[in-house]
Amino acid sequence: MRRVVITGIGAVTPLALDFQKTWECLKRGTSGLGRCSKVEVDDIPWRVTGELKGFDARSIMTPKEINRLDPFVHYALSAAIAAFEDASLTDSAGNSAVIVGSSRGGVSRIEESLRAYFRDGRSLSAYLMPSTTISMAPSYIAHRLGIKGYCLGISNACASGTMAVGEAFRLIRTGYADIALTGGTEAPLCRLCIEGYGRTGALSRGTDGRASRPFERDRDGFVLSEGACVLVVEEMQHALKRGARIYAEIAGYAGVSEGFHQTEPSETGEAATIRMALRDAGVATHEVGMINAHGTSTVSGDRVEAFALREVFGPVMKDIAVTANKSMTGHMLAASGALEVAAAAMSLLEGLVPPTLNHAVPDPECALNISTDLLRKDVRVAVSTSFGFGGVNAALVLKKL
Q1: d(CA 37, CA 238)
Q2: Is residue 137 part of a domain?
């Protein structure tokens, strides 16, 4: 069976506007969260978000392109170009694909356009529909990079980015492609999303960078964030032949619909997903050294995830280091899953597990080996998980080469 490796990573996140700087912030335990400046939030209780600081699409796009495309496409293109360059790809020759996930797509541009339409009587743009569709992110990446192969947009709630990477992995392992650009992108910082998620009871009412507290006793919800992460995944012999740097191997993947509830998570479904990914990778539970958890900081979500992890790993769970990147980035929806896969690859490469912030008082119901300081550990196998509304679950297993 063909083996699949990660050879390039690009990202724009609330921590930094490139992946390596984002990774350094994760290792240092730097929070990228703060009071929302993009949306008026004085009259609602959900005021902390994770924003891209200083992002300027003019470095990669013309003014016309910027106006015709939603920011979620701007972010995706920026991350994709960086990943393409990081992988030392100079052309799109060969059997290539683009698969990118997004939960909310062009929701910011839709809200902006509707406000102008009803408030000012402005006509809707002819580009509103094409600029906001989920598939425009992978399509525009393919357009700009000259990729003529398979192209797919995935929208599976918060699991979208992880599932995009997983589907790219399957595509390459089965011989349908040799290289794929894949990941997740989101630009959900608009009143519609902030208040919409807030009304579900899912958002934190915290007032500063400590609002995101995965697995902590006093957690009260996630922090909504924006950003993108794109990876280059590649058939291993293809990568070795061209002398590419390899971050890690993707060894297994599972995507499972648990058929349980519209919003509530299921321990059974999450556990089944992780087990299937481990089986797909041919990995035993005792071989796993770290888990980059979904860890959103919601009360029920973290508890159910912790139960599922203990159910799968049993007594060896105490030896597995668990980190939750969302304590620093907030929840970038589809982009978080892709970034957490990238961060897991860096943990394997450097032998370091990033800390989890704001874990002052552990929740006894979430009894996991949470890493609160930068941990040096020779991890050979890592697992990254993502779970979303509608009972869509995803898990990836990575190996060190």
Answers
A1: 45
A2: yes
Please check whether residues 184 and 116 belong to one and the same domain.
Answer: yes
158 is annotated as an active-site residue: yes
Q: Are residues 155 and 277 in the same domain?
A: no
Tell me which of 74, 238, 331, 359 is the catalytic residue: 331
Number of domains comprising the chain: 2
Q: What does the chain come to in residues?
A: 401
Q: Give the tens place of pLDDT for each residue, 165-216.
A: 999 999 999 999 999 999 999 999 999 999 999 999 999 999 999 999 999 9
Instruction: Say yes or no to pLDDT of 155 above 70.
Output: yes
The verdict on residue 247 lying in a domain is no
Check: CB of residue 102 under 8 Å from CB of residue 184: yes
Q: Which amino acid is at 138?
A: P
Q: In terms of domains, do 202 and 259 share one?
A: no
Residue type, 25: C
DSSP state letter for 159: T
Cα–Cα distance for residue pair 274/51, rounded to 1 Å: 31
331 counts as catalytic:
yes
- Burial (CB < 10 A; 0-12, 13-18, 19+), residue 46, is buried
Instruction: Please give the single-letter amino acid code of residue 152.
Output: L
User: pTM for this one?
Assistant: 0.96
In a domain, 211, yes or no: yes
DSSP state of 123: P
Each residue of 261-294: b (16+ CB within 10 Å) or e? Answer: eeeebbbebbbbbbbbbbebbebebeebbbbbbb
Catalytic residue among 158, 190, 193, 366: 158
| Domain ranges, residue 363 | 253-399
| 161 and 212 housed in the same domain | yes
- Identify whether the C-beta of residue 353 lies closer than 8 Å to the C-beta of residue 377: yes
Cα angle vertex 306, ends 300, 309, to 5°?
Answer: 140
**Number of helices followed by number of strands (H, E) in the chain:** 13, 14
Question: Do residues 210 and 357 both lie within one domain?
Answer: no
193 is catalytic: no
Q: Are residues 221 and 168 in the same domain?
A: yes
Q: For residues 206 and 303, state if they share a domain.
A: no
Last residue of a domain, one of 241, 268, 286: 241
* Relative orientation angle of helices 71-86 and 107-120, to the nearest 10 degrees: 150
